[in-house]
Amino acid sequence: MAGTMRVPRTRGVLSGILLILLGVWGALLPLVGPYFHFGFAPDDTWVYDTDRLQLSIAPGAAAALGGLILLFSANRAVGMFGGWLAALGGAWFAVGPILATLWDVPGVGAPLGTTEGRHVAEQLAGFTGLGVVIVFLAALALGRFAVVGVREHRMTGEPEPPGSNTTQPLVYGRYARENKPGQGPPPAGDQHVAGDTRWDQR
After folding, report:
1. Does residue 76 or residue 156 have the better pLDDT?
2. DSSP notation for 171-190
3. Engineering a disulfide at 129: which of 33, 63, 96, 124 sits with its beta carbon 3.0 to 4.6 angstroms away?
4. Do residue 12 and residue 39 come from a single domain?
């Protein structure tokens, strides 16, 4: 089954592109968001600290790197590694701000919005909602890389597993069983019914 490790290079293209874009968005939102008055305090651009590194830049880089691997991978194991890397980055976006309080990380800053709706939108776009979408895309890519297609199996040159032949035998009559080799259709009006051995004995 070593040959089944090869997959079409296009299998992770769509998920890879979307994960790269979302990873870059998550990593840069706290840094460039103030340009659009959408992000987190302070209301200054390119403000860097270790909290933003841990909660935004690192998971964003993981998601983008995982997407990059998916985008160019033609190997099943490598592609699945990229999917898991992106999934971990997305999971950290979703739960990282909560877990980071265990080691006294206050967060990347308060939302810049002046209304509750803006606060919710900024939290979803920068952390929780972003993380959920990244995990979903990564899981979708993992599922696609885990499946061995029929064309990929045939490329290995290995015999088809029992029961995989989709060619159906030719039968006659509404309830006919499989005809014996070399036998043609029954005479007109003679229907081969289940349990009737007359045709089988010919």
Report:
1. 76
2. --STT--PPPTT--PPPTT-
3. 124
4. yes
